[in-house]
Amino acid sequence: MNDGLVILDPTAERDEATGRPLAAALPAGTGARIALLDIRKPRGDVFLDEIERLLRERGHEVQRTAKPTFTKPAPADLRREIAEHCDAVIEALAD
Amino acid sequence: MEVIALVKHDCETCATLAPALEAAAIAGAPVRMVSQSNEAETRAFAERVGLTTVPELDEGLALSERLDPEAVPAVVLLDGDEEQDRVEGLHRARLEALFAAAGATLPRDGLPEIKPGCTSITQEPEVAARLAAKRARAAGRIRARELDLGALEDPFEALHQRGLTDGLPVVPPTPERVVALLEHTRRDPQDLVGVVPPYGGEATVEKVAINAVMAGCAGPELPIVLAAVEAACREAFALHGLIATTHPAGPLVIVSGPYADEAGMNARGNALGQGNRANSTIGRALQLVARNVGGGRPGVEDRAAHGQPGKVGAAFAERLEDSPFDGLAQDRGVPADETGITLVAAEAPRLLLDQLAREPEGLCASLATALESIAHPKQRLAWDGLVVLGPEHGRIFREAGWDRARVRDRLFALTTSPAGDIVRGAGGSPEGVEERFVSDPDMPVAKFAAPDRILLAYAGGDAGLFSMVYGSWAAGEIGSAPQSASVEPWR
Amino acid sequence: MSCGLRDVLELESLDTPAVLVASNAFVQAADDQAQKLGQPEIRRIFVDHPVQDRTDDELQATARAVVDDVLGRLVA
């Protein structure tokens, strides 16, 4: 056997993804409705409480929400609900 | 009518018959001599035997595959596509009759009455495997992309360099090896087993088989690996989180039922250790699927701070013949007459030594101490526990007639501690339950969320007053729930 | 962190700018995974690791230190 070995590809054979879109940033200067999405790891709520206070100070509206668990991605209907009611999202605190 | 004679260059019987076949052809018989060997070999054969024409080559062994002889020379009488007669090996009288049926004569000078043939090249293991792989590709059973490892590359180094291993060498997954492994399941190789996080790669039966070859599986383990992959990809197992966590847990496969034996697994001495091929390769195959199909790799997606040896792969079989309980999978819903797996997001096991308990109560008290220290003695409710009872311990429950539910309930009750002992700061450790949750320091606080969060399995060698205790990753609804499944749909 | 990257990417595809706040133990991992997910520019801000043992005061100070950066990622 002089030829090189042929093997079957053990991977999913997906080319590296490209071009996933980013949304447009919010226009400057206006108050926005910002969702604070708590991933539900301990201590994240303390951080987000302060972020909430600071965002309100800066004239923004805040909606607090949370994932069921930090161990899995957020459920699709939670994401949809946030996208429908809010202009932007801050997800925290991943450690 | 046509006569096809398949020959091989290194077959002496073919050499004996060949001149007679050529003479018959020259005299007008409708006979074709076709060689299973390559061009150079066939040329040398013709010269050695004194043929005037070099026999034609069986390109790609297509004819040999179609006629599928066991031995050569294989002389086959065809009427169109239909086979009328065949003679394998040299039987002069039968060959004469075959030629007569074709309206021709086989010159008998110098031919012995009988001479046994040689194995057809299609029966040689390497060739048979190669043809099987070709057939599988042509039939669409195999669809994975082929990767060429360069002729000058060491295949083991090449697989390392392409990032396809877990640090240990893997068996190169040639089409032949993968096709052979797929014989161990009736499932279509393109059936989808699961979608693997973190990047959502699709694990088909074929992709699982490729990684199972790499892990070193012999074949019978495949249905167990398939069941484990399907279970691991269920949302309730939270594999994405398990891969991405800083916690050391990894998937542990526990097999309960007679198929574990058929697959060659070890349920006895050193079942959690090295030395048994099936135990060592089943968990490894699952982890290679996670790595290669799912794309989760240590240092990038896998953020384990330390990890632990079980993440290379962890699988063992339950020792059911003298267990005090039924199989763990059967306890969790797999039908009693089927073999099942239970998949747990588990740490590495710790020893629980108890050499003096002779009654269930005393042994439970010891086991409870090990269970309560999972993660940290003052960490409560977030974790499941798994006890792998050793036979010398299991005997105590069996002789006292304690079933799994009774042991589990007792362990649940014994793994409570007074709130004052597990509050933050108690014992000098800042860990523990927040003070605001502790109104009464005497109030008992359970370690586990419910009795059925303590899993009990049974395995190990005859001697040794030991059991092994595993803690889990984050459990319950916020984390990973153990998954049980039957192996039967994958056989 | 890995699940969080997925979340923000999905929110972006629903036309909602989203930023992940993670501890700086994950900077490299986030870069690598964002690349593999097909969007290297996934919005992300890092705070000091560790988080679990910080007092409330410390976490509040961290929030004050990053809030304008966080907003800056969401606003043009």
Question: Which key phrases capture this entry?
Answer:
heterotrimer; A: 95 residues; alpha/beta; three-stranded parallel sheet; 2 helices; C: 76 residues; alpha+beta; two-stranded parallel ribbon; 3 helices
For the secondary structure, the number of strands of chain C is 2
Multimeric organization? heterotrimer
> Mean pLDDT of chain A, rounded to whole units?
93
Shape summary of chain A = elongated
The count of β-strands of chain A is 4
Helix-residue proportion of chain C: 55-70%
- How confident is the prediction overall: mean pLDDT of chain C? 95
Summarize the biggest pleated sheet of chain A: 3 strands, parallel
Q: Summarize the amount of helix of chain A as a percent range.
A: 25-40%
- Write the H/E string of chain A, N to C: EEHEHE
**So how many helices of chain C?**
3
Largest sheet of chain C: 2 strands, parallel
User: Cα-atom Rg of chain C, whole angstroms?
Assistant: 13 Å
| Distance linking N and C termini of chain A | 52 Å
Structure, described:
The complex is a heterotrimer of chains A (95), B (491) and C (76). Chain A is an alpha/beta fold and 95 residues long. Helices cover 25% and strands 23% of the residues of chain A. Chain A contains two helices and four strands. Chain A has helices at 44-57, 76-85; strands spanning 6-8, 33-38, 61-66, 88-94. A three-stranded parallel sheet of chain A has the order 3-2-4, sandwiched between helices. Chain A is elongated. Chain A starts with 5 loop residues before the first strand and ends with a strand. The mean pLDDT of chain A is 93. Chain B has 491 residues and is α+β, with helices and mostly antiparallel strands. In chain B, 33% of the residues lie in helices and 20% in strands. Chain B contains 17 helices and 22 strands. In chain B, a hairpin with a 2-residue loop joins β5 (74-79) and β6 (82-88). The mean pLDDT of chain B is 97. Chain C is α+β, with helices and mostly antiparallel strands. Chain C has helices spanning 2-13, 27-37, 56-74, and strands spanning 18-23, 44-47. The longest helix of chain C is centred in the C-terminal third of the chain and has 19 residues, at 56-74. Chain C is globular, with a radius of gyration of 13 Å. The mean pLDDT of chain C is 95. Chains A and C meet through α1, α2 and β4 of A and α1, β1, α2 and α3 of C. β4 of chain A pairs parallel with β1 (18-23) of chain C, so a sheet runs across the interface.
